[in-house]
Structure formats: C-alpha cells, structure tokens
C-alpha cells in the first residue's frame, strides 16, 4: 500500500504578502501622482517610478498609480504627465529584457527628456515653458531623494537611519501629504498628518529635528501653493518650540505647539483668526497623544543620534556579555564532564596472581605431596587447606591447631604454610585498602571538579546582566558642565541592575584639581538630580586630561567598633567592615570550627572571598553557594564556618541581614532592642546552602550589634533579655564603649569559646 505524502508550501503566504506590498506601492504612487508644484502635476509620481527602477521596489504598480494620480490631479488634459510613468515602466521592461541595470544618470536624463515635448508644445508662453522646465528639473532631483527614501523603506531590518536618510523620508512624506488633499468637515488630512509627524519628530529627537521637519514640509507646501509665508513661519516656530518643550512630555508639547501658533497669530495677523487651523491642530494632538510608546521608542532609535549611540553601546555590551557568559558556560561544562569521568572511572589495578596460588608457590614448592594438595585450576587447594585458609582469613593470624587433625599429620611444612598464608592475607588486606582509598580519592576528585563546574556556571549566570545607558542624562551633564565652563570630552552614564547610577567623565585637567572637582560634582549632581561624589579621579597632567568616575553620594554614614577575646593564642573568629565600591557598607563576622589557627584560617578565607564577591557585584545566592563549594573542596574532613552579615545601603537606608549558622544580631533604637534571628546550618557541611535574609530600615542614631556564639552560648533562652539589659546599661553610647561593655558582661559568665563583638552606629548626613 503506497502512502501519498502531501508537501506543504509557504508560496501562497509569500504571494499574498507581495500582493499587499504592491497594492501599498500603488496607493502611495497614486497620491504622489496627484501632488503638484508650481502648477505642474504628475512629475512627482513619475519621479517615484524612476526611483523605484533604481531602488528595486515594484515598478509596474507604481507606474499605474502615478499615471492614475496624474490624471486625477490634472484631469484628462494631463495625458502627457500620465504618459511619462508609463514610458518609464516600458523602459524598465526593456532594460530587464536585455539584463541591464539602470543608472541614476541615465534615469535622470531620460526623465527630463520625456518632459521636453510638453515644454516645447504645451504653451507658447515663455513663462509656462520655464515652469515646465523647473518642474521637470525638480522631478529629476526628486529621483535621487526618492531613491534613498524607497531603499530605507524597503530595508525593514535596519536599526537606525542616517541624517541623510531621515531627510529623504521627510521630503518623501511631505510630497505624499501634498497628494492627500482631502478635507472632511473642515479638517484637512494633509495638515493633520504634517503636524503629527512634526510633533513625533520633536518628541523623539528634540527641537532641531522638529524645526527641520517643519521647514522641509512647509517649503513643499509653499511651493505647491498650499501655504503662505506667514503660515509657514508660524508652523516652523510652533514646531521648534514644541520640540524644545520635549521634557514636558506629550501634553506639554501639544500645549506649546498650539500656544505658539496663537501668539504668532496675534502679532502677524492682528486678529483672532489663527494661521494654522485650530481644528487641524487639535486632531493632530489627539493622534499624537494615542501613538503607542513602543512606536515612539522605535522611532527614537531611527531618528535620535543619542539613542543610536546608546543602542550601539548596548549592542557592544550585550555582545561582550554573551561572549563572556558563553566561555564560562563552556568551562563549566568541561569541569562537569571531567567530574563525571572521574566518578564513573573503573579502578584499573594490575591483575594479581590468585592468593592461594602464591601460597602454593611460596610454601609448597619442591614438596613431594604438592601435587596431592594443589591443583592447576580452581578450586586450587584441597579441602583441608581451603578450610585453614578461610580460618586465617577471618582471624588474620593462624596456628597449627586451626588445621584439621588429619592434615596436621600429613603436612611436612605446616608452620611454613601458615606463615605464608598470614603474609599473603596481610598483603591482600593492604591491597584492598589501597584500592578502596583510590576509588574514594577518584570519587572525591570527581565531586570537586563538578563543584568547580557549578561555581563557574553560577558565575556565568550572574554575569548575564543588563547594564543600561542613559543618553538623556548624558546630554544634561554636558550642558551643566558647559554652563560652569568645563569642556566635556566624553561622558557615559550607566545604571546597573541594582538601580545605582555611575558617571564616567573625561575633562581637561586644570591647575587646581580640588576646585575643578568641586565644579564637576556640582554640575553632575544638578544634572542627575541627586547628590553625587567622586569615586575615582586619576588626572594625567602630561596628557592634559582627567578621567573621573562619580557615584551616588551616600545619605548615611557608619561608624564601627570591634572588641575580641581569644580562647587560645589565636582567635578562630574573623571580622570585616567597610564601604564597598557600589556605595554599600559591609559588616561581617565569621566563626571557624573550633578555635586556634585552623579555625582562624577557615573564617578568614570565608570573609576574604565574601568581600571580593560583593566588590564584584554578585548576588547572595551565587556568593554563598560558591563559598560553600570552596569550603567543601578545601579539605576531606568536615570544615565549616558561620557567616553573620549586614549589608547596608547608604543611599536608601536599608540594612540586609544574612545569617548562615550565626547567632542573633540586634538593632538598638532609642532604648528599644530588636532581635534578628535565623536558625540555619553553617557553610561547608551540606552541598547546598540556604542563606536567610532579613531586611530592616535603619534611621539616624541606630546601633547594629553583631556577636559570635562565644558571647551568648552560656545564656540559653535568656539571651534576648540579657542583651537588652546590657545594651541599655552601657555607660557611654559609642560603638567602642558598647563593644567593651558587652565583652565585660559576657566575661562574667565565663569564657568557653572565642568572642567577638561588632557594633556600628548609623549617622545621617546633613546637607
């Protein structure tokens, strides 16, 4: 039985799409053909057909539309205008038949030649002939403009447009609007579209593009007789002011557009009859208000130079991130495969001679009864010898009593046989232990390699970040610096995933860096609308430049005190505190297992890694998972460390407590104590670690108290009451005094472990 397979094809869909595009080009050329300038209709439609020959867009639908448009716009008397697109289409057909591509020069000259008969025979007046010649020349020039516009429209994969392409499209749109001479209930469609286009251009690209768009459109309207000079001036001024009101968003721009036209009307017209139709402006404002935001974002990338630069920066950043993440994931996969290979590896031990055969060779070689006691194949030994061997295997040592009585009488070398069996048994046990140890070692190496792979994979996921650039803030920074007389060579504003802004500046170096830095900080703070400070500012006088990195200035400041007491000579507790590069303040305690040098090394290694990861901007999940894997890999024995961490955002005033096997922390505020507690296991015990995070909002004057378990281990359930009483009875409320006071009170209960106390006080800056 044969099976007929039906083949699907996407050809109908492709054909439908091509038909829609051809219909769209026909409609566009229909309106272009109706556009007239200096009383001559049809030249723009013919120019569009000529441009289509060069740009690769459908020629025949555009020729039909341009011919119909010329007839509709000029009547049946404009048959010569309608004939030009048809002749251009016929020329295109002939060139395709001989497989020749048209050039711009050929098409332009041929276009002008087609208008010569009309110039010679249409009218005897010299003025009419000059007008026809000017219209033909304008049409020939438009071939070049329309060619660029059609290519930009045809290429739908473009990310942004050049300035020339933007101008081509604006002129193309203006000519298209000339053909849309449609009026409904006193509202002109041509004016509505022109006003909406200008407002959109000003919204995405500022006053320069808005004013330029208005000038191009109004010039076309004036040359076509659709607008007078006074109305043109009002339109251009209103567009420029609306673009300047870009920071006021859409409603502000619409209000400024209408208000500017009204004010200019009072001065130029001296009447209440506005130059630009109020109904047209209101309809355009309504269309402008409902344009979707994602359309505006796409248009801004096409038209706004700063948006294009931000797009290129983002593309470079994304490409770099993808390369780094891909490489790290590849490394992670390699480590994982190596780990699997070690775990699945079969122990390869050189083949050993069977144990009983070695016993026979060493003990019974040369004995007359050897052939009776031993065989060449299994079972190698006679039953009495086999029984003796099993007994020695169980006990490890042997004696003549262990042998069967009959065998004791028959064997001449019994003592020697037992001694060899003991030696072979000991050797076999040693070899078995070595093989087991080898298997365990390989399994451990495999687990360690897989652990490294997990760490690298976590780092790869963390590096898959998105860093956003802000071109609007960059422009404001340049403007503010220029007001203070500081020339900005380069500026870059970026915002990380955490929402923090950082600014990179390159400015000329000056003789007094302090005063220059002060002006830079003031200007950047004004532009960013938030207090900023210099994080890094290397100046190179020999190069004549200063590269300055600014970050958000903290609202809060932290002062920290520490007190320690070791059970042995070396304390197993470690501590760290200080400000990170991203503006956060780190306070951390770590208690290693036990006390002494080894515990100190484990806790110090934990905090060292902790600081480096936080400085690099990783999240808590990746940080603690990585450190946990490192602790597991450091030693075969059980090695663990606790982590008591407080990470404070000095800008927002948020304190994030992270506890892994640590005891309670406390917040002292105006005599009241709040306990922060989370029961968890230390790191280095389980394959996965689950940090418990608690967030609190801190205020000016708060104290954060963190201790290790040696301080509170003798208190039990009374820990919270004891800490509240101790904190409220401190003689002087400073971090150092509170630390020593807690240490003294805890020492009265007895010292059973290393003790560390860290106290931090929160201050708020007065600006």
From TrEMBL:
SUPFAM superfamilies: PP2C-like. Its EC number is 3.1.3.16. Keywords: Hydrolase, Membrane, Transmembrane, Transmembrane helix. It holds the Pfam family SpoIIE_N. Residues 555-762 form the PPM-type phosphatase domain. The keyword Transport does not apply. One of its GO terms (molecular function) is protein serine/threonine phosphatase activity. It is an enzyme of class 3 (hydrolase). The chain crosses the membrane at residues 67-90, 102-120, 126-146, 167-186, 192-223, 251-268. PANTHER family: STAGE II SPORULATION PROTEIN E (PTHR43156:SF2), STAGE II SPORULATION PROTEIN E-RELATED (PTHR43156). This is Stage II sporulation protein E. It comes from Gehongia tenuis.
């Amino acid at each position: 039985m044969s099976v007929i397979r039906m083949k699907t094809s996407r050809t109908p869909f492709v054909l439908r799409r091509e038909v829609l595009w051809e219909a769209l080009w026909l409609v566009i050329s229909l309106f272009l053909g109706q556009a007239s300038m200096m009383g001559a209709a049809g030249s723009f439609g013919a120019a569009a057909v000529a441009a289509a020959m060069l740009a690769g867009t459908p020629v025949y639908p555009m020729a039909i539309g341009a011919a119909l448009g010329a007839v509709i716009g000029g009547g049946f008397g404009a048959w010569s205008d309608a004939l030009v697109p048809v002749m251009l289409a016929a020329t295109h057909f002939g060139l395709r038949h001989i497989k020749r591509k048209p050039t711009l020069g050929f098409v332009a000259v041929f276009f002008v030649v087609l208008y010569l008969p009309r110039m010679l025979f249409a009218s005897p007046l010299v003025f009419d002939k000059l007008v026809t010649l000017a219209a033909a020349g304008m049409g020939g020039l438009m071939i070049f403009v329309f060619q660029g516009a059609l290519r930009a429209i045809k290429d739908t994969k473009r990310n942004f447009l050049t300035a020339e392409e933007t101008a081509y499209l604006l002129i193309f749109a203006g000519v298209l609007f000339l053909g849309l001479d449609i009026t409904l209930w006193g509202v002109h469609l041509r004016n509505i579209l022109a006003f909406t286009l200008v407002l959109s251009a000003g919204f995405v690209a500022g006053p320069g593009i808005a004013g330029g768009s208005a000038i191009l459109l109004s010039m076309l309207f004036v040359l076509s007789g659709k607008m007078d000079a006074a109305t043109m001036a009002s339109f251009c001024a209103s567009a420029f002011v609306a673009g300047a009101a870009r920071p006021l968003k859409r409603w502000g721009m619409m209000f400024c557009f209408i208000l500017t036209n009204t004010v200019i009307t009072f001065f130029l017209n001296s009447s209440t009859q506005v130059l630009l139709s109020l109904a047209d402006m209101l309809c355009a404002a309504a269309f402008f208000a409902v344009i979707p935001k994602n359309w505006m974002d796409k248009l801004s990338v096409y038209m706004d130079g700063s948006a294009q630069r931000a797009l290129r920066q983002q593309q470079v950043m994304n490409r770099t991130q993808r390369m780094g993440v891909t490489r790290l994931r590849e490394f992670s996969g390699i480590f994982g495969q190596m780990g699997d290979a070690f775990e699945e590896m079969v122990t390869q031990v050189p083949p050993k001679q069977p144990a009983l055969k070695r016993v026979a060779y060493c003990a019974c070689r040369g004995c007359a009864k050897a052939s009776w006691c031993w065989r060449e194949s299994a079972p190698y030994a006679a039953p009495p010898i086999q029984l003796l061997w099993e007994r020695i295997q169980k006990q490890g040592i042997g004696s003549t009593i262990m042998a069967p009585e009959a065998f004791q009488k028959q064997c001449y070398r019994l003592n020697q046989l037992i001694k060899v069996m003991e030696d072979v048994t000991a050797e076999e046990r040693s070899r078995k232990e070595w093989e087991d140890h080898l298997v365990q070692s390989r399994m451990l190496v495999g687990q360690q390699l897989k652990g490294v792979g997990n760490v690298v994979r976590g780092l790869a996921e963390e590096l898959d970040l998105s860093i956003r650039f802000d071109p609007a803030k960059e422009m404001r920074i340049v403007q503010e610096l220029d007001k203070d007389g500081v020339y900005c060579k380069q500026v870059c504003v970026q915002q990380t995933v955490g929402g923090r802004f950082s600014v990179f500046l390159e400015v000329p170096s000056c003789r007094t860096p302090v005063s220059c830095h002060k002006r830079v900080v003031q200007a950047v703070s004004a532009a960013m609308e938030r207090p900023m400070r210099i994080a890094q500012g290397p100046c190179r006088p020999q190069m004549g430049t200063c590269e300055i990195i600014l970050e958000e200035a903290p609202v809060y400041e932290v002062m920290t005190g520490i007190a320690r007491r070791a059970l042995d000579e070396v304390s197993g507790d470690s501590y760290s505190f200080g400000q990170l590069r991203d503006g956060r303040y780190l306070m951390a305690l770590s208690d290693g297992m036990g006390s002494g040098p080894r515990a100190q090394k484990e806790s110090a290694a934990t905090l060292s890694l902790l600081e480096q990861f936080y400085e690099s901007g990783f999240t808590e999940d990746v940080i603690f998972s990585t450190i946990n894997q490192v602790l597991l890999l450091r030693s075969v024995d059980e090695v663990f460390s606790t982590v008591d961490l407080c990470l404070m955002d000095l800008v927002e005033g948020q304190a994030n407590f992270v506890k892994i096997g640590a005891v309670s922390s406390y917040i002292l505020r105006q005599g009241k104590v709040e306990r922060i507690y989370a029961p968890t296991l230390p790191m280095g015990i389980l394959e996965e670690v689950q940090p418990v995070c608690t967030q609190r909002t801190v205020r000016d004057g708060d104290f954060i108290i963190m201790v290790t378990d040696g301080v509170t281990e003798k208190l039990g359930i009374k820990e919270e009451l004891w800490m509240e009483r101790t904190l409220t009875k401190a003689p002087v409320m400073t971090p150092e005094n509170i630390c020593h006071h807690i240490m003294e009170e805890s020492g009265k209960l007895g010292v059973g472990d290393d003790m560390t106390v860290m106290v931090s006080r929160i201050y708020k800056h007065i600006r």
